Known about the structure:
Blueprint: E1 2-13, E2 21-22, E3 34-35, E4 42-44, E5 58-65, E6 73-80, E7 83-92, E8 94-99, E9 103-106, E10 110-117, E11 122-125, E12 130-138, E13 147-150, E14 153-163, E15 176-179, E16 182-183, H1 187-193, E17 199-200, E18 203-204, E19 206-207, E20 209-210, E21 215-216, E22 234-237, E23 244-251, H2 281-288
Parallel strand pairs: 4-6, 8-10, 9-11, 10-12, 11-13, 12-14
Antiparallel strand pairs: 1-5, 1-8, 2-6, 3-4, 6-7, 14-23, 15-22, 16-23, 17-18, 19-22, 20-21
Amino acid sequence: MVRHSYNTFFDARIRDRTGDVNGLFQSLTPIVPDTGINGTDNTKYRCKADAANTSLDWEEASFTFVPAAGVTKIRFFVWSNNTAANFLDEASIVEVLDVASGTTTISANTTYGDVNISAGANLVVNTGVTLTTNTINLESTSSSYASLISDGTITGTINYKRYSNVVRTGTSGGNDLISAPVSGQTFGSFATENTNLAASGIERAFAPFNNVSGAYENFDTTDNAATTIVAGQGYRAATTDGSNLTFTGTVNTGVVNVGITVGTTNAWNLIGNPYPSYIDFVTFFAANKTQFDTGSQAIYGYNAAGSV
């Protein structure tokens, strides 16, 4: 299922208010529109004032609506006694794509203001196709994840909201082993954006595995502020409340190579999926199994309860 909505933003100054005014932009509750008041490509929306009908100065607001067919712009008026008294402003309509479930495929060059992909839903951008957008927001839960497969080109910022377990307290909670599904983000910006990362002083519960020391080594907001979160690198992470961590960057579309090392303590390496989509285990394993130790040719999952 796909829901299409349209957002617009405006600034307006109401200098004089006389009579019974609908249109002081306090709460912006859109009602049933009248079409055609200013031509076939404009729609009129009346917005209710606040209960006190108080005079307003500058206001910025947004709302979501479904325009009539062919509508490309919206105009804003002050209304007095059900008559458009003063023209205020005009804004172009920008379409927002909401992928709520199933799979949606972009098969032609397309522009959206924003794209939102719910947990369990999938968006595919076909080969040779460009999707232009401000942001793509992908959601997840503890058991379901949004998927974005790009065989074409995506212009815009990717925000992947990746669920992470609540930090262990006593016998409850735990960690998750996760990886960045995008590229280009530093840990400093990641930590600033994700205030729900479990913390102790400047240390955060976000740690790569060091097979030289044989330990997970937490990043901190001072020494690792400029450290890039590497695509394909695995990290142990935990949140304060069992919620999503937002990774922001660009989508990986090509082959991502991850170096595997043998440490002085052990040979284990923590790696992860570098894409904002599921990967095929059979294909991945067939391409990489000869790189694994002959006695350890398997993929191991992590159980926060203590068993692997």
